[in-house]
């Protein structure tokens, strides 16, 4: 049966206006108790009344978010202008009509907001902040070069290749300092975004634990919705059922809505929830529950109108691995040259301690299961392995590892070397020889690999590292399962950017001396 054709309104007759904010509008139970969440730390309504259906959402940015964003913008502009002014004095001697300086400043001023380098979504939120800042400065350099070609100012090369990189050398550390200040406040329970979690009790509990152990992320789960809608999880109250989620979010003013695994969720319900949250400042985050992969291997694309999450295979060969190999060997050789006086001083101190050998050699398992000899400064008494059997009952190590916080076999010099990881400097020779990398999984012992499960053997797909995620995440304080998980995460999500982040964090971990014994 054909559908009847509806008559089109006559000329001059206005079409009815549809308010999209009210489609669909979830009902609000005014009599229900208010949820414990707050919109960025502030009450939703001064009178304590929940918003009625169709009312505009009341979730706004907290005052600390506004202040932090203003601070970032001001510091970026001041630093960029100072670098450009100094460059103008050095390059052009502050000519009255220095269009190079004005053009560079204009390019940076345009590129930063266009590249979303000041977006609240990225400020203080992981490596994305640095990626957007890098894209903005690359865009600025291209604009300066294009402007020089367009206006015939071919002498812009110093501004493209020296001034813009100089601005980057100032902005990146400046952003890092601001983030450290923000992270310290977050560890004290300040500057946190209120989060509503929705899913099964198990996945929500895991999310709550992670947000508490990694407070620098800036999330605080304040309420939960589950299929049962009652009780509490890890001390966080369950305020309702999953089908009531959008109502509680609008009333509670949560900044993040974290969707974790549960059979309730399907594409239709997730889409409906996204519609219900439109117009609010709540960000919906969906956890991929099928596999724990992140980083550059994940890409979202649309095929036949369907959003698909593409997972590319991990790269163990190719151009990026070749770059890593070159950087490893050249970087290790450079570090050996720089630290040669330190190496000599440590060797003299170890030898003078008990006249024993300076270098301790140990068999470790490398890439593809091949054994190699790893070098370290000796930190224990001679024949320490013969005393180990008497200390088995005092073992504090994780899994098959033997560790003691106060090992009587460690010499005085060795204790100092271990605290600051100076005993591992000879491993730079292993890196130059191509048996290890600067960054990678922890080099395992042969007896460890004999007990590996099939998944854990994926650690052997890449070279072991002088440092890695285990080094910057707790070192000897990690459990065996956690150290395995971190190594597998590195293998699966490896990138050059991740290596740079780990190297940077290693210096902080070594200086702090945490988890080293």
UniProtKB/TrEMBL annotation:
<feature type="region of interest" description="Disordered">
    <location>
        <begin position="26"/>
        <end position="58"/>
    </location>
</feature>
<keyword id="KW-1133">Transmembrane helix</keyword>
<feature type="transmembrane region" description="Helical">
    <location>
        <begin position="97"/>
        <end position="115"/>
    </location>
</feature>
<dbReference type="InterPro" id="IPR017475">
    <property type="entry name" value="EPS_sugar_tfrase"/>
</dbReference>
<feature type="domain" description="Bacterial sugar transferase">
    <location>
        <begin position="324"/>
        <end position="511"/>
    </location>
</feature>
<dbReference type="InterPro" id="IPR003362">
    <property type="entry name" value="Bact_transf"/>
</dbReference>
<feature type="transmembrane region" description="Helical">
    <location>
        <begin position="136"/>
        <end position="153"/>
    </location>
</feature>
<feature type="transmembrane region" description="Helical">
    <location>
        <begin position="330"/>
        <end position="350"/>
    </location>
</feature>
<feature type="transmembrane region" description="Helical">
    <location>
        <begin position="72"/>
        <end position="91"/>
    </location>
</feature>
<dbReference type="GO" id="GO:0016740">
    <property type="term" value="F:transferase activity"/>
</dbReference>
<protein>
    <submittedName>
        <fullName>Sugar transferase</fullName>
        <ecNumber>2.7.8.-</ecNumber>
    </submittedName>
</protein>
<comment type="similarity">
    <text>Belongs to the bacterial sugar transferase family.</text>
</comment>
<keyword id="KW-0472">Membrane</keyword>
<dbReference type="Pfam" id="PF02397">
    <property type="entry name" value="Bac_transf"/>
</dbReference>
<feature type="transmembrane region" description="Helical">
    <location>
        <begin position="159"/>
        <end position="178"/>
    </location>
</feature>
<keyword id="KW-0808">Transferase</keyword>
<keyword id="KW-0812">Transmembrane</keyword>
